[in-house]
């Protein structure tokens, strides 16, 4: 009983003690702890949300970077494919270009001079001839007989007189020169229109070339643009002349082409023979501090030597001799007491190896070498071979062939036109080059005297074509059809054809003037010929149609 009562009392006390309202202060803090926990949970939730946003941003950035990398890879791949395609097109273009170049060279070697063999080719030319009528055969024959032949009758006597005096002058020149130190002068040769019998314009001027060589033990070693050495395009047709000792082997030793070290010595050439004083080279007419022959030095030496030679023999002649042009070394003029005068050119040249090709120092009265790169560059002249070719072809032509008459008439008309409108870039050498091409292209029977009018038209049409294309190739350079009888050097036959009109490609003002002068000459041709033609009976002129100016 007491134990049960004790248990009841203990239960009551325990219930009272554990009642929530028994300790109000302690149980009052429960709500406050709940709000703090809720606040912390909210803060934690916010931090988790921000972390989630950060992670999402990083994932987005990674995805954007991945896309950029993929896009860059695609661009690189496309560029590689484009490069491959570009390389393929480049290679294909190069192959096509090489094929065209090979075909062009084959065509030039075989056909570049077949310019007048077919009448169909001539028919498509001559646009400037529309409305222009040449005088008929009777007028041309009368013009040629009275105007051309009447002014060229004294050429033979003049050539004989000039050649005799030039031989005497050169003999005196040899006597006044020091044979051990000065250049050795050889006999002169006549070239050009006076010796090819087609010069028509007065005053008549004889062109003589005088080969010269250095004193022993020296010799000339010539280098041309087509001999394998590198020459820029504007120096085609030129060459250099090196003064060497005859015992030097400049082609077999590299000591002259490369700079050896200070501690190296050539076993073939001693230092004494490889290095020469500058004054010695200048005495040999070389450019300063070089071994290359200087055209200006040659000009000064030749003028002084000619002056000394004339002073020695002047007492033998009853006329005076003077230099007529300051820029030409041998432009001389004979003045008689009666007032008459005779002009001739005595020009020093250097022979190319054992041929009749010559390096010429200056071109008298010509624009062929107006822009020489330097005084150590010499232009090559083929005048001797041109004269021989005309003589060789003339033997196969009919009697009284019209080839020289065509050149004379065209030269006369061009000169008259230049006297009216001023000089142009077109020269008599260009006209002669046209004739040389047609002489090779046309059969011999086409140059019969009765075909003068047709051949004159061919020359004019061919010249017009060349002016339109700005291409007139040198007759000998690159021409594989040169007759073997001439003995022409093979190195020039295998060379790239030389365009005589190349200087006019960049000088448009001169080219425009040249074309205008040519067209004016065509329009004025009938008037110029009729002006210098004596009266012809009406029966011969019924078919003439004059071109108004």
Automatic annotation (TrEMBL):
Principal place of residence: membrane
Species for this entry: Chloropsis cyanopogon
Lineage, broadest ranks: Eukaryota, Metazoa, Chordata, Craniata, Vertebrata
Localization: Cell membrane; Nucleus outer membrane
Name of the protein in question: Inositol 1,4,5-trisphosphate receptor-interacting protein
Signal peptide feature range: 1-20
Membrane topology, from the record: Single-pass type I membrane protein
Keywords attached to this entry: Cell membrane, Coiled coil, Glycoprotein, Membrane, Nucleus, Signal, Transmembrane, Transmembrane helix
Keyword Membrane annotated: yes
Gene Ontology molecular function terms on file: protein kinase inhibitor activity
Domain of life: Eukaryota
Name of the coding gene: Itprip
Sequence similarity: Belongs to the ITPRIP family.
Mab-21-like HhH/H2TH-like domain segment(s): 404-477
